[in-house]
Amino acid sequence: MAKDRFIKDMTKGTPYKLLLKFAVPLFIGNVFQQFYNLVDSIVVGNYVSSNALGAIGTTNSLVFFFFSLMGGLSVGIGIIISQHFGAGNKDKVKETIGTGISVIFVASLVVFALGFFLARPVLTLMQTDPKILDDAVLYLRMISLGALGMGFYNGTSSVLRALGDSKSPLIFLIISCIMNVVLDLLFVLVIPMGVFGVALGTVISHYISALLCIVYARKTNSYFKLEKSHIKPNFVTVRKTLRLGVPVALQNSMIAFSLIVLQGIVNSYGAVFTTAFTIVGRIESLVQQPFISLGAAMASYTGQNIGAGRYDRVQRGFKSANIMNFIFAGVIIFVFWVFTEPIVSMFGKDAQTLKYAVDGLRITSAFYFFLGMIYPTRNVMNGAFYATGITWLLNGTFSVIRYKMGKWKTIKVINKKD
Question: Which of 172, 221, 242, 353 could form a disulfide with 212 if both were Cys (CB 3.0 to 4.6 A apart)?
């Protein structure tokens, strides 16, 4: 059908070509998404204050923690859909999409409540410098208001990727990113709203990207043409979503919890060190996008091929993804060691802040080969810089060991009776 022209069957064809073709649009979208985060930081660091940049940065680990629930559930929904799709069960794909709507909605409300009402006590517990505490609380509460928009955009995108389509959400994400940049400039330079303006622009962008993605998916993809029977929550699917998604959410939550503890240690050194921590994190969030994009490609590729019983193709795809990650890691290490100072200087002019940022970026970039092994690759904020690099090494090594053990071959979450 013409409406299904963006759906991609990844059970046939050369693995590395399929992964690359899938990952490139996703990479472009992720770069745009991280680009407006960079613009947030550059605008705030240069036109509001260094302390304001530190206030936004100190919330990063908390935002990751609060949104890890939604992210994990989206992964669970995507795995179930990709396996039903690989098995050729169209009705079950629709049923899972309908159930996923309810799951994402409830998860978004939970995330909003956590982020909005726990902002001040948690940031205080993290030893946030009083100079930046009020701005940090304001930013976190505003971002929490965008939970529903972020949840539905990520959920819809996860479904599309599970069906082999990484292109459809791209154009709307780009539009959203451009709008976010424009709103940043408007709410900071034209209408001086400071940290509140930056957060408001981000929230508006989340809802716009969610709305555009959902509307377009319904018009171009027959799987989104749901009937009432599909929208009613299927508790078997909910249980499977939780069984698959909660471990991912808990894993990310544990990572986020360790980063919250780390952020608290960083905060104890004062606002200057917190700001340097933020700069390094913003830069690394951008350069990690190839790893993340290939990880998302592998998720859909693996789900479809397991659903079709093609375990040999999963192994070939895994090898191809790691080779591509290894090449990129080598390139970025060279860039970061040669051009570190001009890169970090985009975020402000405070000499001590920039010195900390240069040291941190050079140390962690030396461990990118190990970061590239982690599947899926996670956005890791760096503070106690050597410990972060060692964590990447251990995570990457144990991820490969788990893959070699072959247990993933038995993880087939659908069966003919479902």
Answer: 172
Q: Is the peptide bond before 376 cis (omega within 30 degrees of 0)?
A: yes
> Which token pair is 57?
């940065």
Asked if residue 10 lies in contact with residue 305, where contact means CB atoms within 8 angstroms, the answer is: yes
pLDDT of residue 119: 92
**Exposed, middle or buried by CB within 10 Å (0-12, 13-18, 19+), for 17?**
exposed
302 close to 85: Cβ distance less than 8 angstroms: no
- pLDDT tens digits, 176-200: 788 888 888 899 888 889 899 989 9
* DSSP state string for 215-246: HHHHHH-GGG---HHHHS--HHHHHHHHHHHH
d(Cα 40, Cα 187) in Å, to the nearest integer?
11
CA 171-177-183 angle, 5° bins? 135
Q: Round to whole Å and give the CA distance between 143 and 158.
A: 21
pLDDT range class, residue 382, cuts 50, 70, 90: very low
Which residue matches tokens 């090898």?
319
Cα-atom radius of gyration of the chain, to the nearest Å?
Answer: 21
With CA atoms as reference, report the closest residue to 188 among 206, 200, 175.
200
Q: What gap in Å lies between CA 365 and CA 358, rounded to an integer?
A: 11
Number of other CB atoms surrounding residue 409 within 10 Å: 12
Asked if residues 364 and 385 have their Cβ atoms less than 8 Å apart, the reply is yes
Task: Look at the alpha carbons of 288, 289, 294, 299 in this order and tell me if their dihedral is positive or negative.
Answer: positive
pTM of the model: 0.67
